[in-house]
Amino acid sequence: MAAGAAQAAAAAVEEVGSVGQFEELLRLKAKSLLVVHFWAPWAPQCAQMNEVMAELAKEHPEVSFVKLEAEGVPEVSEKYEISSVPTFLFFKNSQKIDRLDGAHAPELTKKVQRHASSGSFPPSANEHPKEDLNLRLKKLIHAAPCMLFMKGTPQEPRCGFSKQMVEILHKHNIQFSSFDIFSDEEVRQGLKTYSNWPTYPQLYVSGELIGGLDIIKELEASEELDKICPKAPKLEERLKVLTNKASVMLFMKGNKQEAKCGFSKQILEILNSTGVEYETFDILEDEEVRQGLKAYSNWPTYPQLYVKGELVGGLDIVKELKENGELLPILRGEN
């Protein structure tokens, strides 16, 4: 019985292997909720989330659940800016309506329930999630000394007001982190009520709302903006400090405990086999470092390995050095 139930659940989760298949599925499932899991076979957290999806598929037969190997169908992954696994996208009427990054089973369950019922929760069931949302919003606005909630990212703003806000902050060399409100509909709607501010972008300093674009323009004109917002160290100085943070520094997708791409996973295995101590930096956590280090090192891809602040190279070079017996002396600083 148990084996039969497991097979039925597995069958309820479809697998997509091409762009054509994905687009066809978007069209066919337009009238229902479609949940797509961007996964990778090398990531154990993805296997766990596949099991969660199988259970959700049993509970919600009206919802379509799909697995898509992120590195196997790169065109789809790039289109939806999938930079780590697991990532879940939610579609209705062939349009993306929500997103969840990471292996968060309770959050995935909550989002499936909410979107499957089109938000028609009874008031009693909604009480606790609202408290949870307020707590989450508080954490988000305190996530960095200066937080910008915008449409898109600083690299790719998706509205004119967000673009102008980013340009002003960059012009004044203000250090800020950002949150793309298009990536989370719950945050997008909830923050308007939480802050009593109906539009985006919104800028926060030390958890306090400063305002939207018009306020920031006024503060810039009155020369108060520089006094309110924290200044960023020059990127080149920051990168120099980071590459020298430890004798052996690895810039990768993920961290020592959890690699978020196959190349990063392979280089971790090689470094771990040497027994040499090293530190890592997750480039997915800092877009400025991710883009800036490519120019700083004149090396376009990740992972990147540094010894005493000097670039050794990426995965292919590290593999060659290991095969030639040169890796250990380099890591020890003997070469």
UniProtKB/TrEMBL annotation:
Superkingdom of origin organism: Eukaryota
Residues forming coiled coils: none
UniProt KW Electron transport keyword: no
Cellular component GO terms, alphabetical: cytosol; nucleus; Z disc
Keywords for the protein's UniProt record, in alphabetical order: Cytoplasm, Iron, Iron-sulfur, Metal-binding, Repeat
Thioredoxin domain sequence ranges: 1-117
UniProt key word Phosphoprotein: no
Gene Ontology molecular function: any one: metal ion binding
GO biological process: intracellular iron ion homeostasis
Listed NCBIfam families: Grx4 family monothiol glutaredoxin
Function comment: Together with BOLA2, acts as a cytosolic iron-sulfur (Fe-S) cluster assembly factor that facilitates [2Fe-2S] cluster insertion into a subset of cytosolic proteins. Acts as a critical negative regulator of cardiac hypertrophy and a positive inotropic regulator. Required for hemoglobin maturation. Does not possess any thyoredoxin activity since it lacks the conserved motif that is essential for catalytic activity.
Assembly behavior: Homodimer; the homodimer is independent of 2Fe-2S clusters. Heterotrimer; forms a heterotrimeric complex composed by two BOLA2 molecules and one GLRX3 molecule; linked by [2Fe-2S] clusters. Interacts (via N-terminus) with PRKCQ/PKC-theta. Interacts (via C-terminus) with CSRP3. Interacts with CSRP2.
The protein, known as: Glutaredoxin-3
Organismal lineage: Eukaryota, Metazoa, Chordata, Craniata, Vertebrata
